[in-house]
Amino acid sequence: MIIFKTFLKVLNKCKFPLILYTTILVFVCGFNMQTSENSLSFVESRPDILIINQDEEKGITKNLVEYIKENSKIKKIKDNEQARDDALFYRDVNYIIYIPKGYREDFLNGMNPEIKIKSTNDYQASYADMILKRYLKVANTYQSMEKNENRLIEKVNKTLSKKTKVELTTKKDTDSIEKMSFYYKFLNYSILAGSIYVICLILSSFHEEKIKKRITISSISYKKHNQVLLLSNLLLSLVVWMIYVVLSIVLCGKIVFTSYGLICIMNSLIFTLCSLTIAFLISTLVNNKNAINGIINVVALGSSFLCGAFVPLEFLPKSVLKFAHILPSYWYINTNEMIKDMEVMNINTIQGILLNMGILIIFSIIFIILANMVTKKKLKSN
Predict the structure, then answer these.
(1) Contact present, 118 and 106 (Cβ < 8 Å)
(2) Among 71, 73, 197, 348, which residue's CB has the most CB atoms within a 10 Å radius?
(3) What confidence score (pLDDT) does residue 294 get?
């Protein structure tokens, strides 16, 4: 009881870092989710196209120009080649279409006249190229079968007016799950940094020379002493974890109450306990309070960058990912990625998740054993 009371007194002096890391979490996640709100609906992209029509604007030529106008943004540039090249270079237009003189007559006669183009060769230009080629392919197909220009144009327009119907076959709320996944991924940094900073600061107070000597001559064994401190830290970690879960409900909404959310919560709980044991081990190795900031940068920031909390896993080199396997953060973040990509949830799909959680538990046990070994060795040396 004396150890626990002392723990609470020291904790009261170390509350600022927890507030700081929680504020960072809320700010970053809140900002990310706010920007995501603006990109949840699909808007068809329209490339910027310049049409140089040297033919008479009637018949099939007029219809081609109208179709391109309907599916793109038509730009007006000065009528000289230098201005057009500059427009391409500065991306004022993505695609320039040159319709040659006599195009309509040559097309109707089956001569397949060439339409020259210039492009920026980016994705917008590729889309513009698809628009042009789609029209020409349909028009050329009907030209070989229909000699009357009006009926030809009518058939071309009828074919091009057909749209593909997209039907969603899943009830999964991908947008909400994406938000929740980001929150719990970034939580990796807040949990690690907060646990290491606060717990190491608290425990470093117990490792001061005077206190260590009193503990050594007391009737409490080092194992009992470690158990009381570990349980005290466990209580602190659970309270902080519950605050983070409540914040996830506020920021992410009711998706947290689904099966996907419950697994994220369980995963974060296990990682919180693992972070506690990491901090406990570090506190037995390092007694210098001034070194704690450096340790946070190495462990918390390093793990977050290497394991995908700040940079998506798919963007990380394979060599980095192989190294990340030895860090608990990798298994925690990997579970969040699996939840995000999971289409249905059943006993077969969650096997990988259970494996990741099991690995985190094994890490926790190893860290506790190492902490006890280090404490025992230090007591013997004293």
Answers:
(1) no
(2) 197
(3) 80
Q: If DSSP codes are grouped into helix, strand and coil, which group holds residue 33?
A: helix
To the nearest whole number, what is the mean pLDDT of the chain? Answer: 81
Q: Establish how many alpha carbons lie within 13 A of residue 271's alpha carbon, considering only the half-sphere containing its beta carbon.
A: 34
CA neighbor of 353 nearest in space, from 328, 334, 380, 367: 334
* Cα 163 to Cα 136: distance, rounded to the nearest angstrom: 17
- The Cα 118–Cα 121 span in angstroms is 9
In degrees and rounded to multiples of 5, residue 359 shows phi and psi of -65, -40
- Between CA 313 and CA 291 the distance in angstroms is 30
Q: HEC string of 217-270?
A: HCCCCHHHHHHHHHHHHHHHHHHHHHHHHHHHHHHHHHHHHCHHHHHHHHHHHH
Mean of the pLDDT values across residues 161-180?
A: 69
Q: Provide the residue type at 157 as one letter.
A: N
Q: Is the pTM of this model over 0.70?
A: no
Sheet holding 48-53, edge to edge: 73-74, 48-53, 95-99, 116-119
Q: For the chain, how far is it from start to end, CA to CA, in angstroms?
A: 26
- The CA distance from 375 to 368, in Å, is 11
Kindly state the helix (H) or strand (E) to which residue 380 belongs, with its residue range: helix 351-381
Interacting residues of 376 by C-beta distance below 8 A, sequence separation 6+: 222
What one-character-per-residue DSSP string does 84-103 give?
HHHHHHTTS-SEEEEE-TTH
CA dist 252 → 29, 30, 179 (Å): 10, 9, 6
